[in-house]
């Protein structure tokens, strides 16, 4: 017994591997994943003419997952925590349902719900395999919902890949389409490269700190031995580079335009919002929570990335021709790159003025998610009669569909930051203020110039909506010159109404979102 006593004592002091699971805290992720598995299995037994039922099951599952966020609004739950008397930090948990996680989960699940509404018609008309499509969409949404609640590097990387891997297949879902296959390949290669770089960075950080929990990493990076300092700094840099790929920050943006054009339109909208939210959420978690010790490294780097990203994105959007096939989607793609630059500004500012600046990124992301998905919803409506996605196809849209034209005009004005898109204006002001408060005056000037540049292409598209429609002289005065009228599927209408109502609500009561810009979303 004397020989075994040290082993017994060590076992008693070791952290317990037995976990008590808070099922309510993880309910949004579990419900989304469970419905995805249900749809995949049901696809084996549902006859072909009843396949649309799988889409409505997916919509219902995403709505239920979003609803489970309401009981968690206090933001005081966590689970999968280190326990035991020998644990250095008993509060270190792998999953935290705090305010930050809940807000981003609402963005992700709400965005996935709008994408599902847009996809119901697309999957049926494009004859895509329904079971695989809905399983992949729900799997990606489950990973995206897990990521903001992840509080250790292993869970963070796993959630990132669960969100990303199904998206590759979704982009290439249109079988036999060369553009779709090319887009999926480019997206796959860039994401795999980003993952490899991130994993190498995480391994270096673990080697230097001996922990994967974000709070413990932050504590131990401040006391890294001198011989491991270079290793830790390299790990921080590589991890940030990996996440910069996911956010489409310059120079890691090259996959965006071709991927958006080649993907089915609902998937392009999904990537522009949820894919971007995933990248920025991971970037926030690793910089603000795990790597504050190296803020003097990542702060200036992210500030430069923000300036380059917004400048190149807006410059490329300016060059889109009105007659080029796919020009409307490409403009939205380059616009999303420019918007990514604005989203990077508060994260860079957090290195100088504290984590409270992160609220500006969250507020801007919520605004961007609603209006950008709305723009893609209107694009899906227009594509039913004009599938080339040219900007000139939107000329005279007000004469054909006044409500759709007004909705798109409102979405574009929100993105531009002009009234009546008040939420877009206030979101830009909060981002601008975060740069000024952090002493990044030069970055605020670059942002102001880019906002003015972006006004041109947003307003150019808006004015097209209200011009007289083009009429072919050879067909003028004939019935052949008239565009065929088709009935708009109600799920597409519902997606437009839902996003427009959200944008109108936020413009009428911007404090619902902007209050996050004035206080910390993370527990101190």
Oligomer: single chain
Which stretches of 5+ consecutive residues score pLDDT under 50?
6-13, 472-482
Our Rg estimate from Cα atoms comes to 24 Å
User: Structural class given helices, strands, pairing?
Assistant: mainly alpha
SS elements, strand count: 2
The share of residues in extended strands comes to under 5%
Largest sheet: 2 strands, antiparallel
Termini distance? Answer: 45 Å
* Shape call: globular
List the SSEs and their pairings.
Elements: H1 5-13, H2 27-42, H3 52-67, E1 77-81, E2 93-97, H4 99-125, H5 130-146, H6 153-171, H7 178-209, H8 214-221, H9 229-246, H10 256-262, H11 265-290, H12 295-318, H13 327-353, H14 358-382, H15 397-400, H16 402-416, H17 422-437, H18 441-465, H19 490-508, H20 511-514
Antiparallel strand pairs: 1-2
Helix pairs in contact: 2-3, 2-5, 3-4, 3-5, 4-5, 4-11, 4-14, 4-19, 5-6, 6-7, 6-11, 7-8, 7-9, 7-10, 8-11, 9-11, 10-11, 10-13, 11-13, 11-14, 12-13, 12-18, 13-14, 13-17, 13-18, 14-16, 14-17, 14-19, 16-17, 16-18, 16-19, 17-18
Brief summary of the model shown:
The protein is an all-alpha fold and 524 residues long.
């Amino acid at each position: 017994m004397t020989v075994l006593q040290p082993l017994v004592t060590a076992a008693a002091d070791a952290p317990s591997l037995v976990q008590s699971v808070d099922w309510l805290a993880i309910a949004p992720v579990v419900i989304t994943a469970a419905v995805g598995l249900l749809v995949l299995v049901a696809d084996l037994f549902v006859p072909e003419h009843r396949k649309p039922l799988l889409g409505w099951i997916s919509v219902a599952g995403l709505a239920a997952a979003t609803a489970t966020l309401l009981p968690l609004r206090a933001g005081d739950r966590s689970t999968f925590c280190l326990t035991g008397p020998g644990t250095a930090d008993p509060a270190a948990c792998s999953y935290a349902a705090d305010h930050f996680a809940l807000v981003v989960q609402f963005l992700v699940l709400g965005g996935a719900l709008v994408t599902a509404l847009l996809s119901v018609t697309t999957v049926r008309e494009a004859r895509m395999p329904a079971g695989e499509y809905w399983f992949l969409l729900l799997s990606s949404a489950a990973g995206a919902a897990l990521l903001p609640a992840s509080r250790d590097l292993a869970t963070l990387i796993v959630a990132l890949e669960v969100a990303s891997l199904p998206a590759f297949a979704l982009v290439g879902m249109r079988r036999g389409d060369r553009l779709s296959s090319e887009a999926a390949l480019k997206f796959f290669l860039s994401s795999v490269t980003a993952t490899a770089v991130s994993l190498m960075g995480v391994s270096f950080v673990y080697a230097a700190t001996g922990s994967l929990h974000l709070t413990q990493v932050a504590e131990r990076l401040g006391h890294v031995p001198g011989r491991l300092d270079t290793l830790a700094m390299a790990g921080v840099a590589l991890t940030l580079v990996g996440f910069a790929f996911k956010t489409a920050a310059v120079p890691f943006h090259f996959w965006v335009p071709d991927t958006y054009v080649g993907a089915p339109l609902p998937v392009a909208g999904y990537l522009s919002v949820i894919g971007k939210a995933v990248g920025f959420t991971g970037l926030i978690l690793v910089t603000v929570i795990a790597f504050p010790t190296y803020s003097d490294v990542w702060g200036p780097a992210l500030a430069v990335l923000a300036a380059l990203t917004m400048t190149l994105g807006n410059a490329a959007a300016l060059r889109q021709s009105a007659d080029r096939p796919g020009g409307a989607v490409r403009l939205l793609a380059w616009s999303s790159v420019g918007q990514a630059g604005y989203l990077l500004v508060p994260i860079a500012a957090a290195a100088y003025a504290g984590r409270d600046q992160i609220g500006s990124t969250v507020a801007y992301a919520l605004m961007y998610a609603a209006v950008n998905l709305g723009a893609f919803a209107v694009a899906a409506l227009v594509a039913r009669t004009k599938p080339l996605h040219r900007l000139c196809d939107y000329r005279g849209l007000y004469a054909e569909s006044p409500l759709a034209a007004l909705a798109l005009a409102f979405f574009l004005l929100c993105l531009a930051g002009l009234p009546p898109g008040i939420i877009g204006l206030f979101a830009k002001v909060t981002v601008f203020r975060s740069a000024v408060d952090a002493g990044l005056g030069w970055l605020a000037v670059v942002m102001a110039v880019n906002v003015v540049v972006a006004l041109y292409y947003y307003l150019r598209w808006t004015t097209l909506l209200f011009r007289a429609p083009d009429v072919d002289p050879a067909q003028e005065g004939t019935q052949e010159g008239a565009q065929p009228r088709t009935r708009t599927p109600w799920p597409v209408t519902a997606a437009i109404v839902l996003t427009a109502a959200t944008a109108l609500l936020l413009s009428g009561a911007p404090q619902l979102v902007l209050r996050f810009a004035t206080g910390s979303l993370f527990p101190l």
